[in-house]
Design a protein that fits this description.
heterodimer; A: Phosphatase 2c, domain 1; Heat Shock Protein 90; 5-stranded parallel β-sheet; 5-stranded antiparallel β-sheet; 17 helices; 39% helix; elongated; B: alpha/beta; 5-stranded mixed β-sheet; 7 strands; globular
Chain lengths: 578, 102
């Protein structure tokens, strides 16, 4: 290939000397030290051969023709960075301070002054080789580390973040620092059409900062898809990271559920800078400060941990970001800080692209200054998340094979399932994921259960909140009341030790689909059924207290919906087809 | 020397002072500052009055110190953080985990 077959283990020395005799002497000594020799007769040829063979060592006579030794050394050193440290030793006939200085300035790693003994020569070669080996080792470690960081970044972007939901609507700014610093953005659609978003910042840099990312994203995704509440998800993630990560590694994160049909967001900030809610005309409506230590720091969440419920309007936007943005520095060591950030977000909202505006603004501020931390921002619209539920167009309403022949066909279900939750268990357990998981196990998973999950969630929430807890949804009519409603819900749940909710399901397979009968009964006071029934059958959009947005949704998704027993029992059927 | 350690004469109070930027570059020296002390019922004071800045790795190091302290039934107290450092401690809600004074 290059006219010289090289064993990869064999070291190669380049000897550059005009004098054939001197060159031979040096070559012989180097061969004794185990080197293979390439020689060049002048400086120019030396540079050419260096580029061609990338030797492990260069011996350069100071006074070479066509290009002097210093100049040749400079040229060689500009090329050597790409391969490894190639030590270059000058050989000089004069020993004065000037020659030493000049050789070091030209990039030389040492100088030998004639006359020298064989012992001195060999010792010099050995010592310089030792430094060169050390350099190679450091370089190799550096490459390994770079490769690790590359894996970490790739893992984050390809494996974890590529599976994010709603990226056409959620604006994400992500600019990793030179040494990747563990920021993570996740978005997942909930079964009822809400969207869960997480912006997190793991401690530390490089691969170390990304080891928690896989369990985090798996848990966040799986629990969201199964319909667990945000608090359930946060609780699980905290426990998981606490047990998984070493004590000094943790995750600062903001968790958020954006619910279009509730016209609200649910948010917990655990260790990130304030989250913002901006109105369509770019006014700051809310700032949500960190209210809990980061995830994975303490084994159990603090007892007063609370998800804030905030009522929002259709064109509001939620902006989450990590400290890398506000702590970005310019050459004068000034911080970008909050006021510049807020102003950039405002301009971005009015221009319709928050992440690009913020990025441009940070870059203009920092100029060429390299940043130590990742820059991350997530911009989420508060409306439009209600998914388009596929309306059931036609289902053959006859029973499937095994039941067709049965004379009890219409009255006997393929299976029945019941769960009666009482007292304290009502606040400890969310039955919906349990129910859905049972249905998945028996009937297999599929898109058809998404709407069912919404129906069950809404009906159960009504039975628990309006029935057992006796909360009035009139509170939810006003933004302040909305927060009040959820606060009241939490405090009543905490002291709850009586009451029950009884959930019963019956499943009837059909030829190309199925029908699920739902009956939920609670220990509450009930309500004026006739009034509600009337409104429902009239199908008018109503502001009636008990007929909130949730029931409207159920009415839309269910085949039938009926209240009886003075409002203490609700019956609904859900029909699905292939 | 950016980390200084001082033990009181009665051996009951260990002061650790971090001067300048408290970040991941101090990982080793911060650990060395306390790991040789394993006395019981001691007060460990982390003096941040000279600390200009604190990053998330430093928060992690403080948690390691907390673990060490709890193992030996020591009390731990963070003293005199400046405004910028206080803000970072507040965002991380560290006042819920440790005593912060001043």
């Amino acid at each position: 290939m290059q006219g010289l077959m090289l064993n990869s283990q064999e070291k190669v020395a380049l000897v550059v000397d005009d004098s054939a005799r001197q060159s031979n002497v040096l070559s012989c000594l180097l061969i004794e030290e185990g080197y293979k020799i390439i020689s060049a007769e002048n400086g120019l040829e030396g540079v050419d051969k260096y580029i061609k063979y990338h030797p492990d060592l260069v011996l350069m006579d100071v006074n070479t023709s066509r290009m002097d030794g210093y100049e040749a050394a400079r040229k060689i050193k500009t090329h050597s960075g790409q391969y490894s440290l190639c030590p270059l030793i000058f050989v000089a006939n004069e020993s004065d301070d000037h020659a030493y200085t000049k050789s070091i300035e030209a990039g030389g790693d040492g100088i030998l002054v004639r006359p020298f003994s064989i012992a001195v020569f060999k010792a010099k070669i050995k010592s310089i080789q030792r430094i060169s080996d050390l350099y190679s080792q450091v370089k190799r470690l550096q490459q390994l580390q770079d490769a690790d960081v590359e894996i970490a970044e790739k893992l984050m972007s390809d494996v974890i973040e590529a599976r994010n939901f709603g990226l056409d609507r959620i604006g994400i700014l992500k600019k990793p620092a030179a040494l990747f610093s563990g920021d993570i953005q996740l978005s997942v659609g909930c079964p009822n059409g809400d969207v869960n978003v997480l912006l997190g910042d793991f401690t530390g840099h490089g691969l170390r900062s990304s080891i928690g990312a896989i369990p985090l994203s798996e848990t966040f995704r799986a629990m969201t898809k199964k319909g667990f509440s945000l608090l359930d998800i946060v609780t699980q993630i905290n426990t998981q990271l606490y047990h998984l990560l070493p004590a000094d590694l943790f995750l600062a994160a903001t968790f958020i559920t954006v619910s279009s049909h509730e016209e609200s967001i649910f948010i917990l900030n655990a260790g990130l800078p304030d989250a913002y809610i901006f109105s369509a005309d770019a006014k700051i409506k809310h700032k949500i400060s960190s209210s809990h230590p980061p995830m994975g720091v303490i084994e159990h969440l603090l007892p007063d941990v609370a998800i804030s419920a905030i009522s929002v309007q259709a064109y509001d936007r939620v902006i989450l970001f990590t400290d890398g943005i506000v702590e970005a520095r310019n050459k004068q060591d000034q911080m970008y800080d909050y006021s510049r950030f807020e102003s950039a977000v405002k301009h971005g909202i009015l221009a319709g692209d928050v992440s690009q505006f913020v990025l441009a603004s940070v870059e203009e501020f920092c100029q060429e200054m390299e940043q130590e931390d990742d820059l991350s921002l997530v911009d989420i619209p508060c409306s439009g998340w209600q998914q388009n539920y596929a309306k059931v167009t036609f289902v053959d309403d006859t029973l499937s094979g095994e039941y067709q022949s049965s004379i009890y066909a219409s009255s006997s279900p393929a299976w029945e399932w019941q769960l009666l939750l009482t007292g304290k268990r009502l606040s400890a357990v969310n039955p919906i994921p349990i129910v859905i998981s049972h249905i998945h196990e028996i009937e297999g998973s599929g898109e058809q259960w998404l709407s069912l999950q919404t129906i069950l969630s809404e009906l159960y929430a009504n039975s628990l909140e309006h029935g057992v807890l006796g909360l009035s949804s009139a509170l939810k009519a006003y933004p302040e009341g909305f927060t009040e409603y959820y606060r009241e819900r939490e405090s009543r749940l905490k002291v709850l030790n009586s009451g029950f909710v009884d959930i019963r399901l019956q499943y009837f397979p059909l030829l190309n689909g199925g029908r699920l009968a739902i009956k939920i009964n609670d220990s509450g006071q009930g309500f004026d059924v006739e009034k509600i029934q009337f409104k429902l059958t009239q199908n008018v959009h109503t502001q009636t207290k008990l007929c909130g947005r949730g029931i409207e949704l159920v009415e839309h998704l269910a085949e039938s919906l009926e209240y009886c027993d003075g409002g203490r029992t609700v019956k609904a059927t859900y029909l699905w087809g292939h | 020397m950016t980390i200084a350690t001082m033990m009181s004469e009665n051996g009951k109070e260990l002061s650790i002072t971090v001067d300048g930027k408290f970040d991941f570059s101090l990982h080793q020296s911060f650990k060395e500052a306390y790991s040789s002390f394993s006395e019981q019922n001691m007060i460990i004071i982390l003096d941040l009055s000279k600390t200009s800045y604190l990053d998330s790795s430093a928060l992690g190091m403080i948690l390691l110190l907390k673990d060490h302290a709890e193992k030996n039934a020591n009390k731990i107290m963070i003293k005199n953080p400046n405004e910028a450092v206080s803000k970072i401690l507040k965002i991380a809600q560290f006042h819920r985990l440790l005593t912060i004074d001043g």
